[in-house]
Write a structure and sequence with these properties.
With 169 residues, the chain is of the alpha/beta class. The chain is built from 6 helices and 5 strands. It has one domain: Rossmann fold, CATH 3.40.50. The protein starts with a helix and ends with a helix.
Length: 169
C-alpha cells in the first residue's frame, strides 16, 4: 500500500494552480506551494481571464478591442507576479500562466500543453438549489482534465468550516 501511495505522490512533477486571484484563494495557493515544495515539483500559477465580448469589437474604433484585450492580459500577468515571487522565495520553481477564454477549457488545455501532473483549484461551497445539482465546476474540470484534480475547499469569511455548526449558528 505504501509503495503504491508513494508512486502516485512521486508522479507530481508539474502542478498547475488555477487561481481567481481573490484573497479567498490564498489558502489554496499556500497548499499548492506546500505540495510543490514537498514533491519537488514545478508550480505553474494560472489565471483565466475572459476576453471582451467580441460583439463589442465592431462597436469600437479599430485597434481598441485588441488594446482592451491586451490590457486584461497585462493586468492578469501583473497580479500573478507576486504569487510567483512568493512561491520562489519558498524555493519552489514557479511560472505565471495567463490564460484566455472559458475557465474550464483554458485550464484543461494549459494542463495538457504543459504536461501537468496535477491541477489544484479552489472550490466554494455550493448553497441552496446548487447543492442538488450533480455537476460543480470542480467535477466538470476533473471529468475532462488530462491529469488528477485536487479541489481545495474555500471557506468564505464568516462561514464556519463545519457545515453542521454553520447551519445552527
Amino acid at each position: 500500500m505504501n509503495r503504491i501511495k508513494a508512486g502516485v505522490l512521486r508522479a507530481f512533477r508539474r502542478i498547475l494552480l488555477a487561481t481567481n486571484l481573490t484573497s479567498a484563494s490564498a489558502a489554496v495557493f499556500a497548499r499548492a506551494v506546500l505540495l510543490a515544495r514537498k514533491f519537488g515539483a514545478e508550480l505553474l500559477i494560472a489565471h483565466v481571464y475572459r476576453p471582451p465580448n467580441i460583439s463589442l469589437a465592431e462597436a469600437v474604433a479599430p485597434g481598441v478591442y485588441d488594446e482592451w484585450d491586451e490590457n486584461l492580459r497585462t493586468e492578469a500577468a501583473r497580479m500573478l507576479q507576486p504569487l510567483v515571487e512568493k512561491a520562489r522565495r519558498q524555493l519552489v520553481p514557479a511560472w505565471p500562466l495567463v490564460l484566455r477564454g472559458v475557465p474550464r477549457k483554458a485550464i484543461v488545455q494549459a494542463a495538457r500543453e504543459n504536461n501537468a501532473d496535477l491541477i489544484v483549484i479552489g472550490s466554494y461551497p455550493r448553497r441552496g438549489l446548487a447543492r442538488l445539482l450533480p455537476w460543480s465546476f470542480a467535477s466538470r474540470l476533473a471529468s475532462s482534465a488530462p491529469c488528477h484534480v485536487l479541489a481545495i475547499p474555500i471557506i468564505p469569511p464568516g462561514l464556519h468550516s463545519d457545515p453542521f455548526l454553520h447551519r445552527i449558528a
